[in-house]
Amino acid sequence: MRPRLGDPWHPRSRSALLLPMVLGAVDRLERPLRALGVEPVAFRALLGLRVELDLRESSFVGAGAGAGKGPSFHVGLALITTGFWLAGMMPGVAAFFVEDSFLWLALVQGMLLGMLLMVLLAHFATLLVDGTDVGVVGPLPVPGRTLFAARLGHTFVYMALLAGVYAVWPTFLGCFRHPPLRVLLLVPLCTALTTLLALAAVGLLYAGALRAFGPRVFQRVVLWIQVVTATLAFGGFQLAGRLLPARALLEATGDRPAWLGLLPPFCFGSLFEVAGGRLDELRWAGALVALLLPVAALAVSVRLASAHFASALAGGGAARGPRAVWGPPWLARLGPGRGASPEERAGYELGLALARREPMFVRAIYPQLFGFTAMGVAMTLMPGPAGEILADAGAAMALYLLAVVGPGMLEMSQMGSNPEARWVYHLVPHARRERVLAGCARALYLGTAVPAFLLTTLLFTCLRGPTFLGDAAFAGAAAGAIVLRAGRAMSLSLPFLGPFVPGHLNTRNLPVVFGLLGALAAVVVVHVLLRLLHPVGPLLAAPLALAWLALEVRVPGGPRLVREPDEPPELDPGGGAQGRSRRPAT
């Protein structure tokens, strides 16, 4: 007797469309996989397992640390997908203003490549080095190259979804301005090739790091690669408009250099022109680059993956996180305060330690901190007569961008793989676990967010001069007050206890996140107006912002604990914890 749909024994992930589509596509790639040295059967099983685990996490609604991940998975992924869909409107509308098809398609694919690299480095790169399933595949005869290829395939599933919704507007609107048949055929094809190119670029970095540094330090090297590349991607995306102005794109129609068509993403424009009948040698070469470079780069990254990939994941994944080689910031040594309870002190020490060791948290938060700072540096390079005023306001914008990381910092601190957290929660009395959460939140603020604010302020003070201190005082105090208010309104689970889930986002926190973004936008408008009225306008308004911050610091309370187990998590013989509770989520 087969279980019916909705029955607890029915595999809910099997009823979805995503998994059959993924496995069906893999079944048609057997020969290319064998040519790359990948075992097709093992690749299919590993990729299907990863996607199925994502779907099961998204469909599981129970108690304990994994509760409520069902809607959060879909909502988190849906928010990113919606952002890509809206972003696709910009190059779609640009089709009516950019007459040259070469430049228009280069704009479409260049913007997509930049967005994919930013999302991949800031969010989905964790999928490549997540070691939670190494214990399952460890006893099996799975070559490291096959395991690496399965990780690339798992990441490609989500990247293809984002790229597909991005291409909707350029494909639809481009038909009204450029040759419709070529647009309908080549925009989806170039979108797929751009997605492969972004994935291959990161795959080459990771495979090269594994070959060069070995499995023991692979996780740490990959972390710094992610931080550096995210910084370059965030800053470079802002500098693109200055290095390649829109007016130059519109004017460069027939006098552009011919070799430009050999560079990605301009090579996709060459492919568009070759399909239209322009068959000179350089355009043919650009078309071949567009077709062969993504596939060749991806093949090289798979071939470079050594047999030690599984041991590299186990060495830095669930078994142990990146070891912190630096001490805590001096602000973090202030501690939770004299009147804090022992539970709050335990949460403070736990959060302070794991914020520098937990792989999921480190890979998600630190690239964003460095990347947003680089974006702020790029925003200061404002041309025009109002450049100085807008440059100082743009420098202060970096502090507001760092404030956006605040909710994500609290959100990501719920996930972890270290057994130390489970031992702490096992020893904490049931009625006082909210104090553990409050102590952990304070540790994250003082150990991560506040030092980033101060270092960014010091950087821009050196770049812009002492006059920037007025902007920094107003922006830092106002942004800090908004983050503290948002943090107290968030609904969180016990920190560093739940498993990692891609696209995780607590649906209860969506109003808080959007409210924080709206409040930051309002303060940014006020800041710019003050700067335009008078250069010392933000400095004169800084005491009000500092008073607001002091008021928020003195308000008692912390984030709300919405899932509180009836009993401590049960410890397994291996020292881990199940983290499940028999009490439903509230």
Quick summary:
The protein has 586 residues and is mostly helical.
Structure characterization notes:
With 586 residues, this protein is an all-alpha fold. The protein folds into two domains: 226 residues, no CATH class; 232 residues, no CATH class. It contains 23 helices and two strands. A two-stranded parallel sheet has the order 1-2. The radius of gyration is 25 Å and the shape is globular. The two termini are 35 Å apart.
Low-confidence stretches: 58-72, 316-326, 564-586
Distance between the termini: 35 Å
Instruction: Count up the helices.
Output: 23
Query: How many β-strand stretches?
Result: 2
Strand order of the largest sheet: 1-2
Q: Kindly name the structural category.
A: mainly alpha
Give the overall silhouette.
globular
Fraction of residues in H or I helices: 55-70%
Report the β-strand fraction as a percent range: under 5%
Order of helices and strands: HHHHHHHHHHHHHHHHHHHHHEHHE
Question: Whole-number radius of gyration?
Answer: 25 Å
- Mean pLDDT level: 78
The tally of structural domains comes to 2
What's the story with the biggest beta sheet? 2 strands, parallel
